[in-house]
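From the pipeline queue, job 12 of 40. The input is one protein chain; the requested action is below.

Action: predict structure.
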Amino acid sequence: MKRCERNKVTVVGAGNVGATLAQRLVEKELADVVLVDVVEGMPQGKALDLLEAGPVEDYDSKLTGSNTYDASEDSDIVVITAGLARKPGMSRDDLLLKNATIVREVTQNIAPRSPQAIILVVSNPLDAMCHVALHYSGFPREHVIGMAGVLDSARFRTFIAQELGVSVESTQAFVLGGHGDTMVPLARYSTVAGIPITELLPAEKIAALIQRTRDGGAEIVKLLKTGSAFYAPSSAVAEMVEAILHDEKKILPCATYLTGEYGISNLFVGVPIKLGCRGVEDIVEINLTTDERVALQKSAASVQELVDVMKKNDFLR
């Protein structure tokens, strides 16, 4: 009987982001989790390890590891973290097309097995990969969402809290646009206890925090040297999963497919959305200054360049 079943979330890609996400989901007891990865034994081993932590951490969520997609059947949410990191000598277009191939294959496998699922895309370049997932799933636009703005906003909130010496719980921030150098942190809509940071910090300090937010991923890569961020990204995805499964109607900045909103059409761009059990339940259009709107259009143009490359290479026929 369906009423006795837990929600089910499949995480494709059992690397650092995927495995840490699985840990966050089961520790919150949000769902049973299926870890899928092509590396033989890895998803099975990580799932078993997490399962054996249940008695200590007091969770009963089930975990399954698999090298095939059969275990993902009837998932409520599928999170795609699978993809390659950029290697020396690899161009941006090379990375784009290799990861587009991976996301295409993943999507073609999960869509028929979980036709009612909501897809959350984490693989990079994120906004472009959302296009691949939407195209090859055939799902409605409300059911394909990219995780970027939640992570970028969390980074911005962290830096604001550090600068002002306040609790991160008192901070709110909004970062719009594509996930990358052209993201658009909005200082006017970023607050501490409701007070805009424009009233608390000088313009040059805000500019420095914005630049650090844009460089947030690269800063961690430089420190780690052999990897990229995974704790904060997994937390950001977990927040989105919780908003969907608990039907929270939470307003979060996410990459969503725009059809005229903000003057942008047929493109995934990060904007505020209402996130609930039906996925994207509303797109919140906030008033932007001329400079902010120009910055958002510039960010959208960078996403369009990636989409055009994929079209040229027959990924989005």
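Job complete. The chain is about 40% helix and 20% strand.
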